[in-house]
Write a structure and sequence with these properties.
The structure is a homodimer. The longest helix of chain A is centred in the middle third of the chain and has 20 residues. Chain A has a 6-stranded mixed beta sheet, with helices on one face. A 4-stranded parallel beta sheet of chain A has the order 13-12-11-17. Chain A is globular. Chain A is built from 12 helices and 25 strands. The first copy, chain A, is an alpha/beta fold. At the A-B interface, helix 1, helix 4, strand 4, strand 5 and helix 6 of A face helix 1, helix 4, strand 4, strand 5 and helix 6 of B.
Chain lengths: 451, 451
């Protein structure tokens, strides 16, 4: 077990321990990482970043891992590697389970830390609106593990269809349902469309991947509700050109391993992907403060918790409304700016100055549908098509962490663009053991049913 | 279920069905892939390649995936993609469970195929010499799944050591045991040495990764027994320079989750890797012919099974001795040449000519220890150091499948060489579900023991 004393005494011997403040950052996403960077190398500050993953994930490109266009490591970099040059930052891979605001203490599975300042930036997870049992049949897309699981399911469906001789079965295997018409749902649907129409087209003999049926289901009256209607219409047309059926005002009432129900309509599908809702991380509830319906924590103008000037909340977990009609959306730029702002406020407080209220610089929003197809909206400025896609491309490369990853992703994309190929069409099994305790008892006899 | 008729009629309508011979290739490794390529596009030949993985794996570089230097997709390419341009080849992802030589039939989990020619090239798996229960504690390295499991264990050990305050625990976490002093064991040990001394050195605050203890255990009197002694000595010195302890004439008598026993000597280690033995694939036993002690199938000079001129065995599964003191080793060049040779022999038989006895062109053997350190042996020619390493490098890039992969691996290596970095230090969990049926019941309370 790690005692807090152990930590403080460890990292600060050259900085005058008595003066040093210990900042604990929970979460190594955009908010936590940028907060840590803002505090890196500063005198009299010790930082501990704690995350249950060892990597910072560039979430905006996670759908490309799920769709076999990028490898996991191309968008995930070890947090400790990104922060290695700041000698006042310690990174721990551990899962925080509880908070003690009165005692200024963070409790994790394997250690416990005392803080002077706390930054909570542990984000959101996907939500099934009370139907968590749907997850097995319809994975969401928030982690590398989920992305590779989705990749496995999509590619395995094509493989099983190639093997099958039952037309009913083939139809079901080649039906892909994506629930949720936000940017992630649109990107997933567009990518399956592209993959089936271009990448896989020549690789199969018994099926025609181009005939894959892709259905994007949205409960609201239109997809991409945060964008202007004209852009959503454009995106719908682009999706339809890639063979995606867009079903709006359709609500999923049941999900199982063989498909889903939309009221009285039944869709038989082997693959269902969930991009419909999010919910704040569990840890937020430990604060015992009222949250918004998504579980997000309301924050003061300076991004701190009400009554706790030493506790900050940032990123998707924060509910920030000051001077706005709607709370700030759960986007990477919001998290990034909030993380930096909190670092600045902590430095100000440490210097005896007053913290400053957060000001968000809106850089607009983007969504991509496929090769050369994207939409962009910045205030009243709107764009679509190749122009918007090039902006999407350069923004994402610019923000990608680490020079090497930028270079490699750019090359992967250049390669894919000209070859219509996807570099990571790998089906990785969940089981690594060969000599597992229950060996091959479930081998189906020839003659049994496929998949 | 797929009937054999279904397959034959499917792929050959433009080739004159009556004349076409159906070749079934079991296994998409070096042997199977090259046999299929050799038959690709040939008239009156239909080929079905069947493999339980969707990818061809460039096994010689698998240790680099285990050691976080390459991403899985960089050395694994979908078999159907490699063979897509040959319209007479069908690829199926399925697991062959039985063979009926008399009925010329291959039975897989989801289909059954009738062949005119059969090529068995399903390779070997790692073996624990009757102690299969050791696998859980000491994974072997034959598949992508195993490589990512090893990567997870090695990186997790460093993370847990960084968290731990118990010196005993830290020592155990930073002890890495590799069992087996063949090329794979040497490559794994060298790579852990390099990773701890260079890549990870600056990234931790509470531990010094350079102090990691790496032990390479070999039962025989020296490592790399297939190489000349002078080269093995050189490799031993190179390993020791990277901090690896080489223990020869040491036999592992017990493996558990906390370490291993070598007779009366106990080594406490959190990570044990198995590179000690191989055993032919299970399927070989279905042939009901006498095998060698490793389970490999003796083949005739033309690479066919005795008494079955239509059944060929190639690659690691084949035991080929004709005109040699020892059987051909389980190396990629052997498998590759045998695959090509079988394709040629099938084409000869189809043309009414006599098959030719296999002739192996020995291109020598190579093993690498780390940056700029390798050994090479070709007959009486021997080399080591940077020169051998450059040959190792260019050979591996040359044989890597697919132009894009060659390019990307070259770039990854160039990057790693100059930056001492590793591009894929990603810990991926086995569980992808968030809302799993048994949620977080095992969360250890703060105060519980680490790892």
């Amino acid at each position: 077990m790690i005692s807090e004393a152990g930590f403080s005494s460890k990292c600060c011997h050259d900085q005058g321990q008595g003066l040093s403040k210990h900042v604990v950052v929970v979460g190594g996403g955009f908010a936590g990482l940028n907060a840590a960077k803002g505090l890196g190398g500063k005198p009299n500050i010790l930082v501990t970043v704690i995350d249950r993953c060892n990597h910072h994930l560039f979430q905006p490109l996670l759908y490309q891992v799920a769709m076999a266009a990028l490898s996991p490591a191309e968008i995930a970099v070890p947090i400790r590697h990104i922060l290695a040059r700041y000698r006042n930052i310690t990174v721990l891979q551990d899962e925080v389970c509880d908070l003690d605001l009165a005692g200024h203490r963070v409790m994790a599975r394997n250690c416990s830390l005392v803080y002077d300042y706390l930054i909570l930036a542990c984000g959101v997870r996907h939500s099934y609106f009370g139907h968590e049992e749907w997850e097995e049949a319809a994975p969401g897309l928030k982690t590398i593990e989920q992305a590779t699981e989705i990749r496995r399911r999509v590619l395995t469906a094509f493989e099983a269809a190639e093997r099958s001789r039952d037309p009913e079965q083939v139809r079901k295997l080649l039906t892909f349902v994506i629930v949720g018409g936000g940017p992630t749902g649109v990107e997933l649907a567009g990518a399956i469309g592209e993959m089936s129409r271009f990448t896989l087209a020549r690789d199969f003999r018994n099926i025609n991947p181009k005939l894959a049926r892709i259905i994007l289901i949205e409960a609201g009256p239109r997809i991409l509700s945060t964008f202007a209607e004209v852009l959503a219409v454009k995106a719908t047309r682009d999706l339809e050109n890639l063979g995606v059926q867009v079903w709006t005002s359709s609500k999923v009432s049941r999900v199982d391993n063989n498909g889903c129900d939309l009221g009285t309509t039944r869709v038989e599908a082997a693959t269902i992907l969930w991009a419909a809702g999010v919910q704040a991380a569990e840890l937020g509830r430990k604060l015992a403060v009222p949250t918004d319906p998504l579980g997000r924590i309301p924050v003061e103008p300076c991004l701190n918790l009400k009554g706790h000037p030493e506790v900050f909340v940032a990123g998707d977990l924060a509910h920030f409304t000051h001077g706005r009609a709607k709370p700030l959306p759960g986007l990477a730029p919001v998290a990034l700016q909030q993380g930096r702002w909190i670092a600045r406020n902590i430095l100000r407080k440490n210097a005896g100055e007053k913290p400053l209220p957060f000001h968000y610089l809106d850089k607009g929003q983007l969504a991509t549908i496929g090769r050369g197809r994207a939409i962009i909206q910045l205030g009243r400025l709107r764009g679509s098509g190749l122009f918007a896609w090039l902006i999407w491309l350069s923004t994402h490369i610019y923000y990608l962490v680490g020079f090497k990853n930028r270079l490699f992703v750019t090359m992967q994309w250049a390669w894919s663009f000209f070859s219509f190929n996807r570099g990571a069409r790998l089906i990785v099994n969940k089981e690594w053991r060969f000599y597992r305790p229950t060996p091959a008892a479930d081998i189906r006899q020839p003659g049994g049913k496929g998949l």
